[in-house]
Amino acid sequence: MSKIIIELLAILVLSFLFSCNRDEEPIDNEEEFEEYLMDEMDAQHIPALATMVFDDESVLYESYLGKSSLETNERLTGKDKFLLASVSKVITATTLLQLYDQGLIALDHPVNDYLDFEVKVPGYSKEITFKMLLTHTSGIADGSALDNQYYYGEDSPVALDFFMKNYLEVGGEFYSISENFHDFEPGSTYEYSNVGSALLAVLVEQLTGEPFVNYCRDNIFTPLGMTNTFWRLDAVTGTIVQPYDYVSGSNQKIEHYTFTDYPNGGLRSTAADLHKLLMELSSDDGSAKLGLSAKTLTEMLTVQFRSGEDQVGLHIFKMDNELGIWGHDGGEQRVATIMAFHPTNNIGAILLCNQGEADLEDMLLEAYEFGLEIN
After folding, report:
1. pLDDT per position as a tens digit, 315-343
2. CA 184 to CA 188: how far, in whole Å?
């Protein structure tokens, strides 16, 4: 299944499930909540599930249920790393917003002013801006060239900037007018774009002169103490949770993999490390560790574009209008992830699992309401 189909299915399921099951009594004790999680794991054939519920002062609940590997019978631990899929996009956006806070760019600046190649939506003269990339309104589409950029058991040998240039620039090896671009003026319409997210990382590289992996390490992971977070397979220490799909009555594994456009979904991390990031992003006073002002964090969590059910901030979504929680979900081959938090009460939840067909949206809602009950 192609990357864009996986992402669209995840978003459609998110919108549907969040509209359901609002009348049930919320769970108010850990034993019952853990029983709920285990029932969901059994019903959805999830081998391993990491769950964390928190507020602005402490972790209210965390559990690591199931097996990180069915073949070796290893129990899941808090240090075992999951592929985050599109939850990774929040980290990628954070890097760009750091440069914005430093005054290196303005969100309405054309990105072509900072690239060593030109990106244009064919048939339209309007320039693509940073804000358009951050709100999925750039007109850049996810074409079939992405499907050939998965690498199993190794990091992608194709350089990110090489691939992006050859995907987006006229005459490039992977260039296609019909597949790589939507037919609308940039900024006018919302269409979720993995390639647009990866282009943010190329812009960070060209603005800073640093490889994106190094920039994230030095400016996000190290300052926050995210010691179990890695972009590259060859850098990972410790256990990576084995990905599975439930097929024909059994869980079938797949070799650990990477993809060339990795900044849109290739990060591996833990619930504990993601919690450290969310605590900074939900701060009312800005984040000194990330170098982000309160104004920038507020702008990140402000609806910038509305399209149907989608309420888009700066590369993060208002996931439920009634509850007012912001976050992101992710779906890749044999993994599903989701995280969200409330910017006022700072209650949030993170759920990571290694089963690609799992629906985590209703579980997130239950986890958030559980946090409200026990806080």
Report:
1. 999 999 899 999 999 999 999 999 999 99
2. 7
* CATH code (residue 16): 3.40.710.10
- For 204, 217, 318, the CA distances from 211, given in Å and listed in that order, are 8, 10, 31
Q: Which residue type, as a one-letter code, is found at position 182? A: H
Number of domains in the chain: 1
- Measured distance CA(192)–CA(142) in Å, rounded: 9
Give the integer Cα–Cα distance in Å for 305 and 315. Answer: 11
Instruction: Read off the pLDDT of residues 25-67 as tens digits, 9 standing for 90 and up.
Output: 778 899 999 999 999 999 999 999 999 999 988 999 999 999 9
Q: Which two tokens stand for residue 240?
A: 């990576």
Q: Which residues contact 60 (CB under 8 A, 6 or more apart)?
A: 53, 54, 347, 371, 374, 375
SS3 104: coil
> Quick check: pTM over 0.70?
yes
